[in-house]
Write a structure and sequence with these properties.
2,3-Dihydroxybiphenyl 1,2-Dioxygenase, domain 1; TIM Barrel; 24% strand; 9-stranded mixed beta sheet; 21 helices
Length: 630
């Protein structure tokens, strides 16, 4: 199927929009009338611009307040349509969208509307044009695609067809299976949009909160499965009204849109195996069994401070790369790589972002298949020169200018630490803190980039997203959402910063967009871990006594437990399924930090109620020199 996007979906001038849409790989574009009217060029010139960009015009839209009008408005509606037909022929497109009437003077009646469209079809046919009818969710008389189809059916004209829009159907909770009985050749185009579930006026919801398929909460896959069952094989087009998208980067929004359509059709192909669907063949979403490593880019001087912090947390220098200035620190199943190379991507990352956790290696079932799927979904592969005896580890560029490597057990990649590294003797090893694995990785970005990151992870990997949570910072809100595997082997918290005064926003501004802001390590006994950290000389983030008085009263804790929490600066949360304990390192640099957690029972959260207290404490204790010493 051909892919298309409406110009209203992205920001910029019409020329900038066309450039971004073409670069993202779309086949066509819907010309939104306002974009055309505000552009200082003739319709013929605009049409040539589109074709010069390698695109086709799939639709000219919208034409409003047409069917069921009384005279003299009815005659004027046909005159207006003829003027739009003139423009369409100049543009070089044959399809116009007519949305259902919202005028207060419009008259109801299926037959009346069908008669109007039959006449319009005759006029369109004389010019070799087609007209598609769409039911707006807030239409005065027609707000259901079933009624719109009945009008098209009764009009019974080959140049009049139906336009389906997922938002208008799903926002009104109309049964999508009703689409399956519509002949596919009578559907002229399908427009797609998702949206978060918000209880508000339909028009306002539609005009401000639409997003790409897979970024919201609507059952767009079920909608598209029903469309596929009709035999429809025309364009799939995105019509996204979103304030953030209209103020965001055209390239990012266009790329996300193209990825969302590819991912959507892949899901439909897998869930409707009996239906032939023209979609890009690719492996299934990659199953992730954990984080194999996190890599830091730093300098030799700053590596000393970072290494000191890692040792205080119980990590020991385990191995050194055979040919590069790279050291492996290990504890339990946690591998942290410190890269101080003077050239290559890590060095460039340090030059831009400073010391940062810029790459993560994910353990997947099949590294080659994961890379193939990522590339099919428009992810950018990453390669750099491989030295003698080194492995070529499959990788892609991730969010925040970072990297994601793929490691599996079915190839030589499973032996990367033996092949590329030599064991080293730690002459003065720290006390082991009994950290077992990486519990979760926290990435920070601008709030308008959050939907893009969610789509990136959930389309490439077998991950599900949790509901969005607002985290109060003393200086504003941080929007947080999690993507995680079903067994919890991979958890990534995605935090969208609203402004640079928040701790997350400060980290973004000072690190120039570096993505990973903190790493959370798991332990089976946080109190034993806290004692080991103290023995190693680590002073944890200091939490006020008032917090513990409140926690003891709020959860009805035994005084002895509350005292232990207070003594070690451990935060606490619980829900119906279990308990959660959190301990934080001091802040490193401009906002990076480590967290240690213990989960008891089936607690699946991330201690969100504690975030305001943690953030306030971090802001109080941030110092330019970073890590306090013994």
């Amino acid at each position: 199927m051909k892919t298309s996007i409406a110009t209203v979906s992205i920001s910029g001038t019409l020329g900038e929009k066309l450039e971004a849409i073409a670069a993202a790989g779309f086949d066509g574009v819907e010309i939104f009338e306002n974009d055309f009217l505000t552009f200082d060029a003739s319709p013929r010139d605009v049409g040539n611009m589109v074709r010069d960009a390698g695109l086709e015009i799939t639709l000219f839209q919208p034409f409003r307040d047409f069917e069921g009008m009384p005279e003299p408005q009815r005659s004027r509606a046909f005159d207006r349509a003829e003027r739009k037909f003139d423009i369409m022929q100049e543009l070089g497109t044959d399809l116009m969208l007519v949305c259902s009437n919202i005028s207060p003077i419009s008259l109801g009646g299926i037959d009346r509307a069908a008669d109007d469209f039959r006449e319009l079809g005759e006029r369109a046919a004389k010019r070799g044009l087609r007209v598609g009818y769409e039911a707006l969710a807030w239409g005065r008389h027609i707000n259901d695609h079933r009624d719109a189809w009945e009008i098209v059916r009764r009009a019974d004209h080959p140049n009049i067809g139906l336009i389906l829009d997922s938002f208008h159907t799903l926002s009104r909770k109309i049964d999508v299976n009703s689409i399956r009985s519509i002949p596919g050749d009578r559907i002229f185009i399908v427009q797609l949009a998702d949206a978060p579930l918000i209880d508000m006026d339909l028009l306002y919801w539609s005009r401000h909160f639409r997003n790409m398929p897979g970024e919201g909460d609507l059952p767009v896959v079920a909608f598209m499965r029903a469309v596929a069952a009709t035999g429809y094989n025309g364009p799939l087009s995105l019509e996204i009204f979103n304030d953030q998208f209209r103020g965001g980067a055209p390239k990012l929004v266009s790329n996300d849109g193209h990825r969302s359509l590819i991912h959507l059709m892949d899901r439909v192909r897998r869930e409707e195996p009996g239906i032939a669907i023209a979609s890009k063949a690719m492996p299934d979403r990659a199953e992730v069994s954990g984080v194999e490593f996190i890599e830091f880019a730093t300098s030799q001087r700053e590596a000393q401070t970072l290494s000191k912090l890692l040792r205080m947390m119980g990590f020991r220098a385990f191995a050194r790369h055979k040919s590069k200035a790279v050291t492996l620190f290990r504890q339990g199943a946690i591998n942290l790589v410190v890269n101080t190379e003077h050239e290559g991507f890590a060095h460039s990352t340090f030059a831009v972002h400073g010391t940062s956790a810029y790459a993560m290696g994910l353990k997947v079932g099949d590294a080659a298949a994961a890379l193939k799927r990522a590339q099919a979904l428009d992810a950018v592969p990453f390669e750099q020169a491989v030295g003698p005896g080194e492995l070529n580890i499959p990788a892609i560029r991730g969010t925040g200018e970072g990297l994601i490597y793929f490691i599996d057990d079915k190839s030589e990649l499973a032996r990367v630490w033996d092949i590329e590294f030599e064991p080293m003797q730690d002459e003065n090893p720290p006390v082991d803190a009994a950290l077992t694995r990486i519990d979760h990785v926290a990435q920070t970005m601008r709030s308008d980039e959050l939907p893009s990151a969610l789509l990136f992870y959930t389309s490439i990997f077998d991950l599900a997203k949790t509901p969005q949570v607002d985290i109060p910072d003393p200086s504003g809100l941080v929007r947080s959402q999690v993507v995680e595997s079903s067994d919890g082997s991979l958890r990534i918290t995605l935090n969208g910063a609203e402004n640079r005064k928040t701790l997350a926003g400060h980290f973004m501004a000072e690190s120039f967009g570096s993505a990973i802001q903190h790493l959370a390590f798991a332990t089976d006994d946080i109190f034993a871990t806290a004692e080991a950290l103290a023995e190693n000389g680590l002073q944890p983030l200091q939490i006020p006594r008032n917090y513990y008085d409140d926690v003891e009263a709020r959860f009805g804790l035994e005084p002895a437990l509350a005292d232990r929490l207070r003594a070690h600066n451990i935060l606490y949360d619980q829900d119906a399924d279990g308990e959660y304990f959190q301990l934080y390192s001091p802040v490193f640099g401009e906002g990076f930090f480590f967290e240690i957690v213990e989960r008891r029972g089936n607690y699946r959260g991330y201690g969100a109620p504690n975030a305001p207290f943690r953030i306030a404490a971090q802001k109080r204790h941030m110092k330019p020199e970073g890590i306090p010493t013994r």
